[in-house]
Amino acid sequence: MRYVIAIAEAGSFEAAAERLHMTQPPLSRQIRDLERELGVQLFHRRPTRLTDAGKVFVESARQVLEEAERAVERTREAAGLSRGLVRVGYTVTAAFEEMPKLFAAMRERHPGIRVDAREAWDAELAAAASNGEVDVLLGRHLPIPAGFTTEVLRREDFVVVVGSGRPLATRTSVALRDLRGQTLRFFPRHFAPVYYDHVLAALSSTGETFDVWENPLPGLRNLTLNLGEEGFMFLPRSVGRQLPAGITCLTVTDELPPIELAISWARQTTPAVIALVHTARRLARREGWLRGRRPARA
Prior knowledge:
CATH class of the largest domain: Alpha Beta
Radius of gyration: 21 Å
Number of domains: 3
CATH architecture of the largest domain: 3-Layer(aba) Sandwich
Shape: globular
CATH topology of the largest domain: D-Maltodextrin-Binding Protein, domain 2
Order of helices and strands: HHHEEHEHEHEEEEEHEHEHEEH
Distance between the termini: 35 Å
Strand content: 15-25%
Number of helices: 10
Strand order of the largest sheet: 4-3-5-13-6
Largest sheet: 5 strands, mixed
Number of strands: 13
Helix content: 25-40%
């Protein structure tokens, strides 16, 4: 069931195999065997998409897995394992939506577990995890310390962000070629090197290149100062929806690699950490964070 759900959410067998940490051929065999056993086709191929029967199967499978997770949680609670402390380090881009929702979900499902949350830049969080100061990392393209396992919770598109007084702000979408000659406004690379490099790689994948101005006053809370008259920023779509007045988000029409939010935790860990990871997975399914991205527009 998890394999079918993973393919439905990832949109292809290849992407699902990568997410499941396996190669594509055995995944394809598993799906063919399941389809043969059921006597129905679950997926159309080329492009990969669910059949009507597959949609019914995925919906039912999600319900079964959620009930199984609830059974595990009730068992842990009965054994007194749903207690303790989890120290979560999360990045600036996760502060608007994902971390607050995860915190609320933990209070609802595991009131006996205390979540100690810490917001910081990526490099600081990776160092804290390596030093044993945090148990879980939540963020986009974070460095993963040795001994940690990681799992993608959300996959989404980038948007271009400009000041609302700019001519581009009257539009709803933009191609990167329309931004030629403008400067990408970004934070200094040493704050979040993996994220920084992923963003620049996504931009350059289209053949476009931009000068980068590294803001001495970084942070999403200062955007109205940074984007008032010139330049642009490149952010995850969900973050763009949370920004203050005076800022406009534009859909990017170019075909770009997605931006991913992941949760990472130490392989040798506590029941409280496992409970938080299970809650994060359930939250991602409920919110539809992995059910596909907006298609690019020509």
